[in-house]
Amino acid sequence: MCRWLAYSGSSVLLEDLLYKPEHSLIVQSMSSTMGAEPVNGDGFGVGWYGERDTPGVFRSIEPAWNDRNLRDLSAHVRSPRVFAHIRAAIGSPVQQTNCHPFRRGRWLWMHNGFVDGFHAMKRDLAMALDPDLFADLEGTTDSEMLFFLALTHGLNDDAPAAVARTVGLVEESARHHGIAFPMQGTIATTDGETTWAFRYSSEGRSRSLFHSTDVSTLRKQYPDMPELHLLSDDARLVVSEPLRDLRGAWQEVPEASYVAIRGGEETIRPFKPLVPAGTA
């Protein structure tokens, strides 16, 4: 599958997130320890928020470990909110429009997992999109389709409800096609103010997902780690797998749950799909 991270807090250089941790996302692109595949070399993407209303995005089909432009960019770009994703394709083409994170307006979206039976359901799902959004669907992945379905179902107004309706629609379509366990994975999305990260699968065996422990607690636990003193108290990370082996630094997001992070406030709530009204 894929690996990803979502950061919010004090402004940091991208390289501090992508390269410096001992088990950084770049290391994971070559040697993931908790993913379905150890190598995630089918492209990457980084999204960040700066001085403009909409986020910047840099995506490439190069392996993350081998892209000099990413290395240079990461040493110069600083941001208080970052999404980063490394891709392991499982059927869709390796092309830039299929690399995460996906962007529309102020929103970013990324996914680790798959929609089983997507080929059979693709027409049904596409027909459920808001007609005003359909023309902007650029790639061929189930992940981008999920994003546009969430936008259709009210992502701008209520992100958890929109994702619940999106997953509910996928599962209802799968039922008509005789597909038992269509949804698998973790999803992250942000509007630049709040980050939501979801862990869900139809089978109840989701891909791994962790959130970081409160930074002030970690400073007390590891007083000799200078990098912890560079972070604000509201700094938070959500990751597919931990970036370094620090006891007590990571908490697993429970199965069928989502975490919402806004400033220093972090909440975890149950996640349950909801079939949209009027779905045939």
TrEMBL record:
<dbReference type="InterPro" id="IPR026869">
    <property type="entry name" value="EgtC-like"/>
</dbReference>
<dbReference type="InterPro" id="IPR052373">
    <property type="entry name" value="Gamma-glu_amide_hydrolase"/>
</dbReference>
<dbReference type="InterPro" id="IPR029055">
    <property type="entry name" value="Ntn_hydrolases_N"/>
</dbReference>
<protein>
    <submittedName>
        <fullName>Class II glutamine amidotransferase</fullName>
    </submittedName>
</protein>
<dbReference type="InterPro" id="IPR017932">
    <property type="entry name" value="GATase_2_dom"/>
</dbReference>
<dbReference type="Pfam" id="PF13230">
    <property type="entry name" value="GATase_4"/>
</dbReference>
<keyword id="KW-0315">Glutamine amidotransferase</keyword>
<feature type="domain" description="Glutamine amidotransferase type-2">
    <location>
        <begin position="2"/>
        <end position="264"/>
    </location>
</feature>
